[in-house]
Amino acid sequence: MxxxxxxxxxNPVSLLVxxxxxxxxxxxxxxxxVLMEKRELKTLDEEKIFAEFKSCADKLTGIKxxx
Length: 67
Prior knowledge:
It is built from 2 helices and 3 strands, in the order αβββα. It is of the alpha+beta class and 67 residues long. A hairpin with a 2-residue loop joins strand 2 and strand 3.
């Protein structure tokens, strides 16, 4: 809570709901399992997901991705 979107902090719950964004998240733990730590995904292969997404987008648009 040391960034601009968290200041001033009069009501932490309100700030979480209305001001926080994805960059506010560092670590995610669900049911005792660490899913993301220090902004690094632990249970998903991000590169594989992006490759599959690009392949599907290419098929849908008929345009080959340049990235």
